[in-house]
Amino acid sequence: MLKKIILSALIAFITFPNLSAQDELKSSFEKVYGALKQAGTINYQENCPTCLKVANNPKKLSNLVSESNHQTIELSVVTEKELAKYFDELASNENIPFGYAYDGCYARAHKMSRILEGKGIITGKAFVEGNLNVVSPLLGKVNWWYHVAPVVLVKKDGKEIPYVIDPSLFKKPIPFNEWRDLMTGGKKENLDNQYFTNRFSYTPNDKAPPPKLSFTDDDIASTQSTMAGYRNTLSQIVKNHAK
Amino acid sequence: MLKILIASFLIASSVFADTKMKKISDSFNDKVKMVKETDEGIKLHFETHAAVYKVNKTNPKFEQLKKLLEKSKNENKEVKVEVSIPAMEITSAHN
């Protein structure tokens, strides 16, 4: 925009035949240019405390093709060591009720994806649907019809491997296949569907194209209320366990 | 005799602890995605919630709950449910 204004002023300056008018125009141009230069750029997020600011140093991005829902997702590529650091930071976040394995994976995944975006890490979501069974350290047997967690690509042995961040089930980031197999017991009959989406998806309903293009207010509100509710339920469970 | 006394004490304290335990429940609004009949009653999937929920035939309101949950699925409308934890059993439902 600024370039266009300067260019228009220069063209007018060159083509203007009257010299005094040229001086006048030059002076006006200098005033406008000075004011524009001082004004800088408008920060539309300045008065938006809930807006997450993307870090200025985003990691390298690479594409992950999700065949079953016909999507190609752009994800950050990180090393295992870097991912382990981000995982530990997330796992120690007490606002995210990782211990409440009964439900709420969609809210935990959404929150993690937003936090990581703030650190310049572009995640996607890994979804598995089927007869999924896990044993939670705190709650025992848990049965889900689907599960979701954030996913990024890890460069290892010259390959880019999808790794899942799921502190509710693991103590470190884990390759997608291991994560899926834990829930299905490695049995094909327990797996109905597996797919990836971009980070803006919230539930399996968002798997089909067109993909969501931003974090919606409704999903953010649901994330907050779900996590608040499950933090409360989890503290009741812990109290009961202590009795 | 001592063994019997210790055993009685352990049973009594366990029962006491159980009665002191607070019942835990969850409530939420969601759309029913699937209702499947099982030998014990029905199993349910919701659109957003990831857990498998159920209603047992032993529930005195079983037929009423089943009808309401199936209606939510067929009409693609949200239903408010209360669930007992950790059984993941729906104890009540409202439109």
Write the layout of secondary structure elements.
The complex is a heterodimer of chains A (243) and B (95).
Chain A: H1 2-15, H2 19-39, E1 61-66, E2 71-78, H3 80-91, H4 105-118, E3 124-136, E4 140-156, E5 159-164, E6 174-175, H5 176-184, E7 191-198, H6 217-242
Parallel strand pairs in A: 2-4
Antiparallel strand pairs in A: 1-2, 3-4, 3-7, 4-5, 5-6
Helix pairs in contact in A: 1-2, 4-6
Chain B: H1 2-20, E1 24-37, E2 41-46, E3 53-56, H2 62-75, E4 78-85, E5 89-94
Antiparallel strand pairs in B: 1-2, 1-4, 2-3, 4-5
Could you please describe the fold and organization of this structure?
- The complex is a heterodimer of chains A (243) and B (95).
- Chain A has 243 residues and is α+β, with helices and mostly antiparallel strands.
- Chain A folds into 2 domains: 2-39; 61-242, Roll (C8orf32 fold), CATH 3.10.620.30.
- In chain A, 40% of the residues lie in helices and 25% in strands.
- Chain A has 6 helices and 7 strands, in the order H-H-E-E-H-H-E-E-E-E-H-E-H.
- Chain A has helices at 2-15, 19-39, 80-91, 105-118, 176-184, 217-242; strands at 61-66, 71-78, 124-136, 140-156, 159-164, 174-175, 191-198.
- In chain A, strands 1, 2, 3, 4, 5, 6 and 7 form a 7-stranded mixed β-sheet that branches.
- In chain A, strand 4 and strand 5 form a beta hairpin.
- In chain A, helix 1 runs antiparallel to helix 2 (19-39) and helix 4 packs across helix 6.
- The longest helix of chain A has 26 residues, at 217-242.
- Mean pLDDT of chain A is 84; it is low at 9-19 and 32-46.
- Chain B has a 5-stranded antiparallel β-sheet, covered by helices on one side.
- Chain B has 95 residues and is an alpha+beta fold.
- The model of chain B is unreliable at 11-19 (pLDDT under 50).
- In chain B, 35% of the residues lie in helices and 40% in strands.
- Classes of the chains: A alpha+beta (243), B alpha+beta (95).
- The interface between A and B is medium-sized, with 26 and 19 residues.
